[in-house]
Amino acid sequence: MDRTFSQWKKQCLNKLDLSKKGSVDQDIEHVVSLLNSCEEYFTTSSCSGRIILIDGAPESSDVQKQNCVWLFVSHKTCTSDDLMTAVAKSSGDAVLKFEPFVLHVQCRRLEDAQLMAVRSTHGLEVPLSHEGKLLVEHKYINFLTQIANQKMEENLRRIHRFFQNLQSALTVEKLQTLQIPGPPASQELQYSSNLLETGTEEKDKTSVYKRRRKRDQHQTDCFHGDSSSGLHDLDDCLDLFT
Predict the structure, then answer these.
(1) Which residues fall within 8 angstroms of residue 43, CB to CB, at 6 or more apart?
(2) pLDDT digit string (tens) for 208-234?
(3) What is the pTM (predicted TM-score) of this model?
């Protein structure tokens, strides 16, 4: 199993990036580097979060990537003018979406996967046009732009907390042997004050992860027992965001 996993990891990390951008997003690159430097993990795809405006066919009830046109996409904050210019090109059903950061991670063992069991509902999806006709006023698009930008800023803070807490969750011995790039300088400046406020919380979180990792060494089938034990493990995983 270990040899097979290592082969999968090598093949995956050596293949071409087939995403639209063709490279890892800067705001999540340090998280991807950390995971790929660990023997237990490797990433298969990632996105740092994005604000997108897509145009789907009017007769389609579901907006799928292969059946829509991307009118606008940004991995940073945007302006209402950006969205107004983009929605003016709509000929179908335009939908504004904010999608938070996502990581698809292959894990060597079940206990390794439990650490990655994190989900979020931090999203936004609003229809703006139907059959090419705008459904809302410009003032409402200005409002939606503010909401989407706030979600993007919160998304970057969550990436930072996830990275810090993931480091704490991994063993000290492994981190000492790795050379992991830190977050971009812009994030360091943006979150320095936040770290000062949450510094006392990190010690408590580290102890939670240590206790859980020790427990996992004796219990690898915790999600196959009663539902209450599975919920406790999921709560520990969700602490990566808090």
Answers:
(1) 32, 35, 36, 103, 104, 105, 106
(2) 444 555 454 444 343 333 433 333 444
(3) 0.67
